[in-house]
Amino acid sequence: MSLYPIAKNLVKIYMHLLFKIDIQGEERMPKEDGFVLCSNHMSNYDPLTVAAFIPRQVRFIAKKELFHKRMMAKLLFSLGAFPVDRETTDMKAFKTAIKLLKNNEVLGIFAEGTRVKEGEAKAAKAGVAMFAMKAGVPIVPVAVSSTYRFRSTVHIRYGEPISLEEYQGQKLTTELMEEITEHVMEKIREMKVKE
After folding, report:
1. To 10 degrees, what angle do helices 127-135 and 174-191 make?
2. Residue 39 and residue 158: Cα distance in Å, rounded?
3. Which of 142, 141, 140, 132 is nearest to 167 (CA)?
4. Per-domain residue ranges for the chain?
5. How would residue 173 be classed by pLDDT, with cut points 50, 70 and 90?
6. Helices 91-102 and 127-135 sit at what angle, rounded to 10 degrees?
7. I need a labelling partner for 51 at 20 to 30 A (CA). Which of 6, 41, 135, 171 fits?
């Protein structure tokens, strides 16, 4: 039995107790088709925020280091997450991601690969575009903005799905993947609510 629905409801209650939640653009997300959900990442709260307040289950790619402890690995797997080795070309994680997307599931990715504080800059990983291109699905940008102080507001902004159809048939170079991913991150930066 999946723990996801139970964990999601518990996290929602927890988040509502700690913070005020402000969501816009939720209706923009595809209701049934697969897509890549791409978010910024400033805090450890961000995965909880994104997972709790999207109507569909999000399957997150998580760094393999989080799976080293048996109990944690068991919990993450039960919540639908799967590991990726960020130091190599992890073909197992790649195939898992593509399979999920083709099965009309939602793949959650924090494109910067790690937490990036407000005002900092970090190059986004090209994987966001690569997964979407290979699976033939759109990318939905989501911007999370908050100080995560007690009773502060957590702003969640969903953007219009970004279709990559215009790139179909082109050679998937690293430069092209990086260009597309940077375009997505620019959209996310534009949507962020200034505190």
Report:
1. 110
2. 9
3. 132
4. 4-191
5. confident
6. 50
7. 135
Tokens for 143? 């911007």
For 178, other C-beta atoms within 10 Å of its C-beta total 17
Entry field: residues in the chain: 195
Q: Which two tokens stand for residue 70?
A: 């048996």
Write down the residue that tokens 């999601």 correspond to. Answer: 8
Which residues in 72-88 are b (16+ Cβ under 10 Å) and which e? ebeebeebbbbbbeeee
In this prediction, residue 87 carries a pLDDT of 77
Fold of the domain built from segment(s) 4-191: Glycerol-3-phosphate (1)-acyltransferase (3.40.1130)
Q: Tokens standing for 160? A: 């219009």
pLDDT digits (tens, 9 = 90+) for 1-42: 567 888 889 889 999 999 999 999 999 999 999 999 999 988
> What are the tens digits of pLDDT across the range 140-161?
999 999 999 999 999 999 999 9
Check if the beta carbon of residue 107 is closer than 8 Å to that of residue 84: no
pTM confidence score: 0.87
The candidate with the shortest Cα–Cα distance to 63, out of 105, 15, 99, 115, is 115
Return d(Cα 117, Cα 146) in angstroms, integer: 11
Closest CA to 77 of 55, 56, 62, 92: 62
Q: Do 193 and 155 touch, CB atoms closer than 8 A?
A: yes
